[in-house]
């Protein structure tokens, strides 16, 4: 008997696939909707290889309310949604802002309308630390706590902050309307998970991030340079007031991050808190140069890099204060960023074509071994 059935939007993407795996491993049934814009259906095969269970999959665009509604109708046992589906590149968001608002904000509204129509009442939202913007503009806000004022500095961050508001207003209205009508209302809940810099891959080496175009984030870029796919790494600015001049970020292993979604979902189902925001991060800030050094140590050579101008909307320091999640969700990161570098290298070194190739037989054998 399943613990429950969860719809995961963007479930074949990087964080979505790892969260689907975590839920299946903890007894949930999982239904994925994804338009495969920046992901691959092969992720479903890898999930099944690792845990022996396969999510249901529908190729659906998040902005298509009717198609979403049909998936809910087909699976009346769905009572919760984990919402990842979004465009996610900070730089690109400044170049095509309307598309980011259409997909991220418009898609979230379509999802919430389909949920309401089908009486699906819990939503865990994949938000981002970018909603805080430059927290150094306030005293004592680094590491960043949840009560830090929201003030995103780029279009991507603004879409995330806007969706947080939409979810908050929607859940509050549902609760209020039902309460006024004398009906049960506490079933409506939302978790806003503001996470920092996801990285790493599955320790088995058969599942990881597989960006379809040029990745925008530091670790997948390092992987591409290490495999020879790209000539050099670009360091966006070395004139920040940090210990070595490069920007500071809080890197969190994707396996830890996936567990964060699982415990947040369980918290909503058990405690019915209304809408709550939690930071998912390690509380440890690393500079770009420190990350390059850690990755160099793993691969045993130095990656070529070039310092270029800062990117529009980038800030000095995004380090989490994860105390609230530590205390309320009983969750904390367990895997250090050095291990994330090792796991990433195992993934890209063995799968330079990502999901467009079969993983090496010895890695497959290691995964299949115990189940035989």
Automatic annotation (TrEMBL):
CDD domains: UDP_G4E_1_SDR_e. One of its GO terms (biological process) is galactose metabolic process. GO terms for cellular component: cytosol. Its cofactor is NAD(+). It catalyses: UDP-alpha-D-glucose = UDP-alpha-D-galactose. Its EC number is 5.1.3.2. It is an enzyme of class 5 (isomerase). Keywords: Carbohydrate metabolism, Galactose metabolism, Isomerase, NAD. GO terms for molecular function: UDP-glucose 4-epimerase activity. Residues 6-281 form the NAD-dependent epimerase/dehydratase domain. InterPro entries: Epimerase_deHydtase, NAD(P)-bd_dom_sf, UDP_G4E. Pathway: Carbohydrate metabolism; galactose metabolism; Carbohydrate metabolism; hexose metabolism. It holds the Pfam family Epimerase. SUPFAM superfamilies: NAD(P)-binding Rossmann-fold domains (SSF51735). Belongs to the NAD(P)-dependent epimerase/dehydratase family. In the N-terminal section; belongs to the NAD(P)-dependent epimerase/dehydratase family. Homodimer. This is UDP-glucose 4-epimerase.
């Amino acid at each position: 008997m399943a613990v429950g059935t969860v719809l995961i939007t963007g479930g074949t993407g990087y964080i979505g696939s790892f969260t689907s795996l975590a839920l299946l491993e903890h007894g949930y049934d999982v239904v994925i909707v994804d338009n495969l814009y920046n992901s691959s259906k092969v992720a479903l095969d890898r999930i099944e290889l690792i845990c022996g269970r396969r999510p249901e999959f529908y190729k659906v665009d998040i902005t298509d309310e009717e198609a979403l509604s049909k998936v809910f109708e087909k699976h009346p046992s769905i009572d919760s949604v984990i919402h990842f589906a979004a465009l996610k590149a900070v730089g690109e968001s400044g170049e095509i802002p309307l598309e980011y608002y259409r997909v991220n904000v418009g898609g979230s509204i379509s999802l919430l309308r389909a949920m309401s129509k089908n009486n699906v009442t819990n939503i865990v939202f994949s938000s981002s630390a970018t909603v805080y913007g430059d927290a150094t503009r306030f005293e004592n806000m680094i590491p960043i706590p949840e009560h830090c004022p929201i003030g995103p500095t780029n279009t991507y961050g603004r879409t995330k902050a806007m969706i947080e508001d939409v979810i908050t207003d929607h859940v509050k209205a549902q609760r209020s309307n039902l309460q006024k009508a004398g009906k049960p209302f506490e079933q409506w809940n939302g978790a806003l998970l503001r996470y920092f810099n996801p990285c790493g891959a599955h320790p088995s080496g058969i599942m990881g991030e597989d960006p379809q175009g040029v990745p925008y984030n530091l670790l997948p870029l390092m992987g591409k340079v290490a495999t020879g796919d790209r000539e050099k790494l670009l360091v966006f600015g070395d004139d920040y007031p940090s210990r070595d001049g490069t920007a500071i970020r809080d890197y969190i292993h994707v396996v830890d991050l996936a567990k964060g979604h699982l415990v947040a979902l369980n918290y909503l189902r058990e405690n019915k808190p209304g809408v709550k925001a939690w930071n998912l991060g390690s509380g440890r800030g690393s500079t770009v140069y420190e990350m390059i050094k850690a990755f160099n140590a793993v691969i045993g050579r130095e990656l070529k890099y070039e310092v270029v101008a800062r990117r529009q909307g980038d800030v000095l320091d995004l380090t989490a204060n994860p105390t609230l999640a530590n205390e309320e969700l009983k969750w904390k990161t367990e895997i250090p960023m050095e291990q994330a570098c090792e796991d990433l290298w195992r993934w890209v070194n063995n799968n330079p074509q990502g999901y467009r190739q079969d993983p090496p037989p010895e890695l497959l054998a290691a995964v299949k071994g115990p189940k035989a």
